[in-house]
Amino acid sequence: MPEEIELIQSAPVVRDEYGMYEHPELPDFDEGDGDGDGDGEKCKAWIAQQGLQLVLVHLETDAPEEIADRYFQSDEPHCGHCEPGKPEGDGWFCLAIHNTDDGPVCWWDRRVVTR
What we know:
The protein is of the alpha+beta class. The chain has a domain at 17-24 and 54-115. The protein has three helices and four strands, in the order βαβααββ. The protein has a four-stranded antiparallel beta sheet. A hairpin with a 2-residue loop joins β3 and β4 (103-111).
């Protein structure tokens, strides 16, 4: 009998002192497996197993110019002043807001496969 997979659900977004967030049930991916853009092999496999659709929202292209400039011109990795835009449609929940080489990115996910 196949092992029952526990599907991740929406959780309250509680950002840290830098404005970052990680869903409490998000697996700890090794470097390169969940590298901010969700394109590591283990990360992709987990997203597929969970039946999720992933959309990345980058501060650099999502936020108003003055907010993006404020982040990129400061010496602090703080993005708490920015609220990432949610993709259109229903069912989206935040999995993570974290820094990448290109600045903060928000992982929005929603269930596309029900089990």
